[in-house]
Amino acid sequence: MGEDVNVRPYTPINPMYPDANLIRVTQPGVSGGVFYPKGYVRFYNSYGQPMNNPQVNTNPGSNNNTHFVFQ
Hints:
This protein has one helix at residues 63-66, and strands at residues 5-7, 23-25, 29-31, 34-36, 40-43, 51-53, 57-60, 68-69. It is mainly beta. Residues 52-71 are annotated as: Disordered.
């Protein structure tokens, strides 16, 4: 297995929040006590908070609502 992939803007949107506008793609494994057999993707808002649904809003959410599982 390889490592997770983090994609972020070349120029930081807000240097105070290192995870601002980050997209994280993970390998299969456990996160928060939940096993993700195919991994997941997570999207972060401009404050470095994981988002509930980036297509609808950028509000932060809980782990259960911000891990988008690969099918």
